[in-house]
Write a structure and sequence with these properties.
CATH topology of the largest domain: Rossmann fold
CATH architecture of the largest domain: 3-Layer(aba) Sandwich
Helix content: 40-55%
Strand order of the largest sheet: 3-2-1-4-5-6-7
Number of helices: 15
CATH superfamily of the largest domain: Glycogen Phosphorylase B
CATH class of the largest domain: Alpha Beta
Length: 371
Amino acid sequence: MRVVIDVTPLAIPPTGIGTYLRETVTACGRNPRGHEIVALSMGGRTETAGLAEHLGEVPGVVRRHRRVRGAFVLRRLVNASPVPLLERLAGRADAFLGSEWLHPRQRHGVRGGIVYDLVPLRFPEWTTPATRSLHGRKLADVRRCDVIVCISRATADDVRDHLGIDEARLRVARPGVADRFHGAAPAPPAALGGRPYVASLCTHEPRKNLVTLVEAYARLRTGHPELALVLIGSAGWDGGAAAEAVERLGLRDDVIITGYLPAAEVPGVLAGARAFCWPALFEGFGIPVAEAQAAGVPVACSDDPSLDEAAGDGALRFPPRDADALADTLTRLVEDDAVRADLVARGHAHAATLTWDATAAALLAALEDAA
């Protein structure tokens, strides 16, 4: 089959969705299972430069990029058109996987969609109007798809229960962990001056629950003043709430907010941490949890069931809205060497079961079954 996958979201620095797309497409190129893999994109000058930076040329993958003016408006028109336009952009498509950014109608072949989570539908208060609008248009397309690939069993259950899509059209292709995280050499931020630290990695947005983490860290610090807190990730739409909490609690000298870090730098920062914390209220999967496990760091994460697949049995869990419980969990994670050693071993074993080659194989098998 000629399998066309839209990669236009990689025009911006990749976080969860971008990581899934980039790593899965790259793995499809390594092992195409006899298919021709085509990475489709459409964008303006800035987006074209972003795609070159965040994806570039991928061995085993054909790139089809359309540079256009007024890309944002044009993509909306292409997506809304009842006229099949995919073949004009990508040529023949025996199977197509669209994205929130680009999902034109097609003349022939299997139509697929990837669903990462239903946060804008289930928890609209945690998202922006623009995100809800983009997500809503994509979900309308998902309902037309022959097969829907979900990044976790939890997300597949949500799609079945909240979109009313039959189980027969659902497939799960869990994220993997890139090789660079396994056995990563510690490379703490230079600004710490050798100080030990707890790390977290996420875009700053309400559902990531960073304010509760900062409040828990303030409690942890009373018993462990040597520990710093490092918050890795892009500024999002939380209005700077985490930074405000840092100021409110007098932690300016103890908390480092790094902003977005290039993918190559993240494994070393994680590997150098004394502990990793993921306090999210809800996730589609939670890739950084498994990445921290692969880097050999003991992990504490929210006990929300949406994180069960990412954490396996290799993390301490806590109720995410309870700062005292989180502080107690982090204290145990930092102080108890036996717990730390057990979690590192369990985390390594769990992360080893998650590979991008397996993700790509599951995705391509889903399209084959639909065909």
